[in-house]
Model the fold of this input.
Amino acid sequence: MLKRFFGYYRPHVKLFIADMLASLTVALVGILYPMITREMLNNLIPNKQYRTIVIYGVGLLVLYLVRMLLNFFIQYYGHVMGVRMQAQMRSDMFRHLEKLPYTFYDNHETGKIMSRMTNDLMDISELAHHGPENILISTVSIVVSFIYLCTINWKLTLVIFACVPFLVAAAMFLRKKMRDAFKASRVSIAQINAALESSISGIRVTKAFTNADKEEEKFEEGNKAFIQARNEAYHAMAEFHASTSFITDIFNVIILVGGGLLLFGAFGGESMQIGDYTTFVTSVGLFISPVMTLINFMEQYQNGVTGFERFIEVMDTPVEEDAPGATPIENVQGHIELRNVTYGYEEGHPVLDNVSLDIKKGQTFALVGPSGGGKTTICHLIPHFYDCPDGEIFIDGRELHTITADSLRKSIGIVQQDIYLFNASIRDNILYGRLDATDEEIVEAAKRANIHDYIMSLENGYATEIGERGVRLSGGQKQRLSIARVFLKNPPILILDEATSALDNTTEILIQQALDELCRGRTTLVVAHRLSTIKNADEIAVISEGRIVEQGDHEALMRQGGMYADLYNLQFRVDNGIR
Done:
């Protein structure tokens, strides 16, 4: 995993090296102040070397100016490098997501996928920038400061060093408590977001049933839980900072007392000089501070590694691939055949059971039957959205596995009940059918879908923005827009999956006219609950519990007096108000 992580540094290796060199220089400059302080107190000031003192001061000021510039470089370009790596990972993940099969999206919620692309990658970006930098600066600072402190007084240095494990142990324990507390607060935030999304999405229902008080009550429950979780998180944070500050204060007491005794030679041997003592007091922070930095860095490291693991989990999901030897299909005529197809979304629970169909070129073939019988599954298998290992599906005599998925889907147009429109203009949504289409072709497609006149009645015409999922359009307008999109695509095979079931009768007539025009000259597979819309189909198959129980045209099925006839007669009585 680390190899893959470091692979994202490769395009920015020069910037990374410059950042590390700048970090190293900053760490080394930090040790110069106590060294100069010691020299001044022990030699320059007692010997009244004023000129040298000024030179040292000016030199130190210049170094601090250089350190300021280096800190700017580290903060700015280091973050730029992290953002570039994050952007590359996001691009890689998006391209990978575009290639994943339907089954991946069946098993993963959209919000969680988005979280991996935003929150997780942000954690990775912070680790990519601060990780190497913190490790390098802290390690160099600890080693150099420890060696330097030993040159001042190795006994006092060892006392300080012996206390460090207690600081690390206490800090790690309290850091874990703080991490767990903040994790709980993130969970409460997620619950608030979920409640907020649900309430806003269902605002029309809330207003219709005048249940605003109930929604407010549900939201406040999550809000109170958030307050409680946040209080616990801040309590843990206060414990951490107060305790670690107390421990570092103990270090100062040890230095103050121990150094004071050493000044008078209380432990035997040569007494400590006042300059060395002062330098030791000012230098010990150079040793303790990077230790705390490394302790705090562990949290960032854990977040970054966890985020990268979640990133890798998506990136390692197998993409949708064509079978070996698959080639594009050209000049599709539209002959579709299913042979002994058995399929289930979950192993051991087949939705289709040994289904065989033969849909001739240019034929309108309808699938009817109870919900859950497998009609939509057939519509998903023909464009190879799901792989069918049990049985065979042929297009113009070629089995699906011998055809590339892109060429197959370019030959198939799909109109569904649940229309997805992009938050863009009407023109852009129609253009999605064929991205290289001209404006004249877009207008022609809209006219054939019976929506051109409505579009022209709008102030901005085809440039009108339709909002998220087409919220500014009615159901019939969205449906006709999706039909225009398929007209522009102009595929030889058409799949209509419950395309008019959610519409009123007047709108359904307009949509049906557009669909009749769309179906002309194409092989069309229609899934419908309203049997009146498929009376004129060339062939009708009744599917129940994954099996074809009846097949024939409308007249033949009515004469049989079976399931189709029962469904049709029931709908006829309901539509005519007969009880």
Remarks:
- The two ends are 67 Å apart (CA to CA).
- The longest strand covers residues 336-343.
